[in-house]
Amino acid sequence: MQVVDRVIDRVVEVEKTREIVREIEVSVSPKTTTEWTSVLDELTARIDTGRVYARDLPVLAPAMERLVAAYNRRHTHPS
Predict the structure, then answer these.
(1) What pLDDT was estimated at residue 77?
(2) R_g of the chain computed on alpha carbons
(3) Would you give the distance in Å from CA 22 to the centre of its chain?
(4) Contact yes or no for 69/77 (Cβ under 8 A)
(5) pLDDT tens track of the chain, all 79 residues?
(6) C-beta separation of 62 from 54 below 8 A
(7) Going by C-beta distance under 8 Å and a sequence separation of 6 or more, which residues neighbour residue 36?
(8) Whole-angstrom Cα distance, residue 30 to residue 40?
(9) Domain limits of the chain?
(10) How many angstroms from the chain centroid is the CA of residue 71?
(11) ∠ at Cα 44 (69, 58), nearest 5°?
(12) Residue 64's closest CA among 35, 45, 40, 42?
């Protein structure tokens, strides 16, 4: 009996599936007064702690002035 060495190439395909879970932040407009309060509190905290740059404050000022003016109009003249 004679022993012969042979190289045998065989391709084996394996399919693996992986589940990847990622958390994605999605912006949603507040709908209730509680949600609006949370958003305004978050903005307040960010400004107080310096997480809003000083250079960005002038950009926020007009919108905040409009908000306060609208609030004052509504608060002093409720419909």
Answers:
(1) 79
(2) 31
(3) 12
(4) no
(5) 777 777 778 888 889 999 999 998 888 899 999 999 999 999 999 999 999 999 999 999 999 999 999 999 998 876 6
(6) no
(7) 30
(8) 10
(9) 53-79
(10) 28
(11) 60
(12) 40
